[in-house]
User: What shape does this take?
Amino acid sequence: MATPLGEKLTAFIAANGPISIADYMSHCLADPELGYYATRDPLGAAGDFITAPEISQMFGELIGAWLVHAWRAAGAPAPAILAEAGPGRGTLMADILRAANADPAFIGAISVHLVETSPALRDKQQATLAGVKSPVAWHERIEDVPDGPLFFIANEFFDALPIRQYIRTGSEWRERVVGLDDAGTLAFGLGPSSLRPSRLDRPDVGVPEGAIFEICPAAEAIIDIIASRIAAFGGAALIVDYGYGKTAFGDTLQAVKNHDFADPLAEPGEADLTAHVDFAALARCTRQAGAAAHGPMDQGAFLLAAGLLDRAGRLGAGKDTATQRAISEAVERLARPEAMGTLFKVLAITPPGLALPPFDGAD
Assistant: This one.
């Protein structure tokens, strides 16, 4: 189906030549007039996907408790920055702050900073966070968040950052691009640029012809900013997303529409585009920036260690059977290996020398 953004991209490619997958993703997700996030609220049953904070308040409450513990372990700095990238409807931050209200000193020390480019989602966040006790500010870029001790959370943010793909062709890794086929339809092809072998981060001996390797320069740049600030000013960060713990070969670019997978090239601007997060690359960039990387560990293991079952029991105490069943189903969805429990990973970032439960230590 032709979409307005698809027609715009087709005309651009016809005039200028193929574009990288990173540029294609950027246009599809962030075009100011026709991009996916600029034109809609994609979350919930009426949208295209549901994230963990929309499944249950327990997810955000446990993260809130972890962040308060991290703040105390860091010496309870005041003032301090509580920041979230890609905050959706504001649900996660609202749950974090509700849990954090148990420590008035933390609430009094922080200002809340949300990194959001979508006007539609900013409106939702403002409504969700109306009346919170701490001051709240919005930013277009992570670079615009003020300096200071940083306590940072990103849930399903890094998966939407633009990736570049390279295909094994003979002895080279040629970049995969989006161009036009003979019928003038968007299609994948090979571009002129290639990847330096040193960038693979693992040997490519025996890798078959046509294998794909992905990198995400945007993710590495953002992690550098976060880790550098934590190394310089103190704090802690949690990165929660779906992906893999060790760098691997494979095509993970995917489109989601109406809670189902779709062709990434079929409806530009009308479907969410994501790719699996390479947590090993994020950990490596963290260490290069002078901070410590902990994990990643599976989301299920993290939530269970953080007290998911205890919180579910207290939340369901005295409730009717239907409510208790819903809470139990949420636990299963968040933590079971067949659901989100192992596909989603959690990476923690701290200053060197600071280890926080349930992480055993720095990589």
In short: Residues 1-299+341-363 form a domain with the Rossmann fold fold (CATH 3.40.50.12710).
